[in-house]
Amino acid sequence: MESRLERLRALREEARLGGGVERIAQQHRRGKLTARERLALLIDPGSFQELGALARHSMSDFGLAEERYPGDGVVTGFGKIHGRRVAVFAQDFTVLGGSFSEVQAQKITRLQDLALESGIPVIGLNDSGGARIQEGVRSLAAYGEVFLRNVLSSGVIPQISVILGPCAGGAVYSPALTDFVIMARDTGSMFLTGPEVIRAVTGRAVTAWELGGAEAHHRRSGVAHLVAPDERAALEQVKLLLSYLPQNNTEDPPQLAPFDPPDRMEPALDTLVPEDERVAYDMQRVIDLIVDEGSFLAIQPEYAPNAIVGFARLEGYAVGVVANQPAVLAGALDIDSSDKIARFVRICDAYNLPVVTLVDTPGYLPGVEQEHGGVIRHGAKIIYAYAGATVPKIAVVVRKAIGGAYVAMSSKQMRCDLNFAWPTAQIAVMGAEGAARILWRDELRRAEDPAAREQEFIAAYRERFFNPYHAADLGQIDEIIEPHETRPRLIRALEILRTKVQANPPRKHGLIPL
Fold first, then answer.
1. Per-position DSSP letters for 135-156, written without gaps between them
2. Is 173 in the same domain as 302?
3. I need a labelling partner for 506 at 20 to 30 A (CA). Which of 75, 287, 469, 498 fits?
4. Cβ of 214: how many Cβ atoms within 10 Å?
5. 317 forms bridges with which residues in the sheet?
6. In this structure, how many other beta carbons lie within 10 angstroms of the beta carbon of residue 362?
7. CA–CA dist 6, 170 (Å, integer)
8. DSSP-assigned letter for residue 236
9. C-alpha distances in angstroms, 327 versus 65, 288, 496, 508?
10. What is the total count of domains within the chain?
């Protein structure tokens, strides 16, 4: 018995060391933590229960017979984050470069299955050189098993991917299928084809960081939802993000004890929107003054910055916030911002977070590139997301709500529960200049001074339509509110809507315009 216990302890120690002391030192020299060091930072002390610590591959070809390590390059198990149960796996780069194998897939898919059955979030810490080439099609099939479970778990349990090292080839698709991707700026990278392949095929020289670094995916591709300066900060972002999400789609998000007065008025909001509609302002300032102090967590803040999306709290309750940003492209909607808004609304709907929308957009961005790029299809995603969402929805028209963008941005026709407007709101079919030229085309043609006459018509159109009162007359706006009372109005509205029940027609699934 004693010898067996000694054998077990020896194997556990071997598993703890991963690829060995020298490879751990190499990992540290690269500025990276080991898989177990990362788990120690992420999981509540003493709560981690490992599974599959002694699993090894059975390959004997290409020299792998001498490279058999307990755990086979990934640490999997269950633990707690701030007392909440989670499933987590961490790839171990010290073991064969963290290369993905059949055994890794068996361990991860076992974890995914248990997490789905138990209704708890899955967190993946990615640091891998890609598929284990020596295993051939086995490693490719192994990826497929993980992808399948990513899809089946989508919208049921939160899935978060953290990119702490390389993530290349087929490995990138699992993070792409999860709800959120967090990247460490200095160490994380993602790409389908590496710099060498691109150089060989296209002749273009590019570094791994230029191709798939955190900044590339945060600003240009939109793959990364959050970027952290280092690994420790990335793991802290996981904890913060989880604080806004429920354990699964049948539960409500966690509520914090209220720490900001629900009846707080903000006089600064009364003068924040400039009288001149051509002058921009920062919508982020509006959000910060309305939500619980310091509670806003921006998602994809550097991607499509003409739209703002993120999580916040109102009286301690988690909500999703969607807003146009008039300081960028005047808040116009384009291809990227449409994708950003639509995906975020669907995440909120999947995980039972009410959606608060702050509207200030002149419409969809005009241009040949936008039209040929499919702005019609992409713009329709916003409509699809809002119309299909059954969570409580509240919209506030802050300034411009013009044309089709007014309809798309959580209008009454998108089944928005309550629509408010500030006195500064401008709700119209199109801009005043274009409308005047169409409505009074004949009069302008006959006018002795067309320019002066056009200005008269523009002023008349503005007087009639560039205000919220006509929309309120028709019931499209439920109430015109003073800006300083926005916070208490939203909190009271959400209190009423907290027990909202709404369902969509029975179907296998809808066909979102992808």
1. GTHHHHHHHHHHHHHHHHHTTT
2. no
3. 498
4. 26
5. 314
6. 23
7. 40
8. H
9. 60, 16, 33, 41
10. 3
110 lies in the same domain as 24: yes
Provide the annotated active-site residues.
Answer: 169-170, 404-405
Let me know whether 274 and 147 are in one domain: no
Residues 310 and 356 placed together within one structural domain of the fold = yes
Which structure tokens are listed for 301? 């803040």
User: Do 31 and 180 sit in the same domain of this protein?
Assistant: yes
Cβ of 25: how many Cβ atoms within 10 Å?
A: 11
pLDDT of the residue at 139: 74
Query: Residues near 187 by Cβ (< 8 Å), separated by ≥ 6?
Result: 30, 31, 32, 164, 165, 230, 231
Are 202 and 296 members of one domain?
no
**CB count, 10 Å around CB of 85?**
15
Q: For residue 145, what is the domain's CATH number?
A: 3.90.226.10
Which of the 8 DSSP states describes residue 65? Answer: G
**Spatial separation of the C-alpha atoms in residues 8 and 16, rounded to whole Å:** 12
Residues 367 and 444 in one domain: no
Q: Are residues 201 and 349 in the same domain?
A: no
Strands 317-324, 297-299: pairing is unpaired
Identify the domain containing residue 441 by its residue range: 431-465
3-state secondary structure of 189: strand
Residues 399, 190: Cα–Cα separation, whole Å: 39
Q: What is the mean pLDDT of each run of 10 residues along the chain (514 residues)?
A: 70 64 86 94 96 65 57 89 97 81 89 97 91 71 92 98 89 94 94 83 85 91 96 97 98 94 96 91 98 98 98 98 97 97 98 98 94 95 97 97 92 96 90 75 78 77 80 91 98 96 93 93
